[in-house]
Amino acid sequence: MNRLSSSADNIRYNGTGRCYAGAVGGSSFDELGDLDKLSFNLTVSTDKLKTNRNAAKATILEVEKEREASLSFGLREMTNNNLKMALLAGDFNAANQAAGNQYQQALAFVDDLYIELGALNVFSTKLPGVITGTLAAGDTVTGKTSSATGKIAFVGSGFIELVNVSGTFQAGEQVYKTQDTDYITPSGIEKNQDVIVTDAAGSVRRQQGTDYSLDPDYGYFRKLSAGNMEATDVVSYDSEAVEKSYIHSMSASSVQKKLIFVSDKKDHGPRQRWIFHKVQINLSGDFPLIGAGAATLNVKGTVLADTTQPAGQEYFKTEIIG
User: Fold this and answer.
1) Which residues have CB under 8 Å from 143's CB, separation 6+?
2) Tell me, what's the pLDDT at 283?
3) For residues 125 and 153, what is the distance between their CA atoms, to the nearest angstrom?
4) What is the pTM of this model?
5) Which CATH number characterizes residue 48's domain?
6) How confident is the model at residue 106 (pLDDT cuts 50, 70, 90)?
7) Which tens digit of pLDDT belongs to each residue from 112-131?
8) Within this chain, do residues 288 and 220 fall inside the same structural domain, yes or no?
9) Containing H/E element for 197?
10) Rounded to an integer, what distance in angstroms lies between the CA atom of residue 255 and that of residue 28?
11) Which of 239, 265, 287 is where one domain is finished?
12) Which of 25, 63, 133, 300 lies in disulfide reach of 182, CB 3.0 to 4.6 Å?
């Protein structure tokens, strides 16, 4: 196959394809997913010797000093392997959060500063309705039809608030402590992005936005000094099950990968495969944590010599296919 000029078929136009990464010298690879870009750069630097015989200072000798090949690409997909590679991290560790609850949790509040509740995705359940008999904080109630259960954290005028909810209560059923004697008939079931903050006795309810503020997704809680909260107040809530894992970034030694780029077969122009035997990976540029558009990990890779390859073939291989 010998491609001669001039032919538009020689021009690669769209610029799409896939990139794979694996261990240097390995034969199994992870796909990097959708990339923002993938660029190759080859730089040759030289020393120039100029004449001192006349004012023109013309170059009379140019000697190659060094060559450097590099890649730059933007990782759009925040996969485990992409993050480990770009952030120079060790293995991911599981730290899953099981569904749980807290009843009258005592916390060390700091006026006007957020503290951690210790759980993600916190919420509470409110049952508005008509109360018959007596219900109080600490009582366990059961749905007569649903068999759902929960623990009362606060009793208000025409409602109760629950934590440690198991099952799904139904509107219109009897939710009782003592069947047919002490119960509420809820007109609805409300799952609120809120915690239940009360005095230690559970008789006085503090209000979100007035007495405290809350980030329910990440479990950050702030006591407002302008409100009515006391240092002895307690917090009750349920929390959802959450899959969670973590890495310690910049903790790994330098990352080196074998990278393979393959152009999309339907691109205009010749199909190509580039095999870079050994690439030093470095995070390069800003990674926007807040900003418009896709968050992209910008990576630069320096092509190193892989001395396990035959002489003259240590750096990279370019294939033109079909």
Assistant:
1) 149, 167, 169, 170, 173, 174, 175
2) 86
3) 10
4) 0.85
5) 2.30.110
6) very high
7) 999 999 999 999 999 999 99
8) no
9) strand 196-198
10) 17
11) 239
12) 133
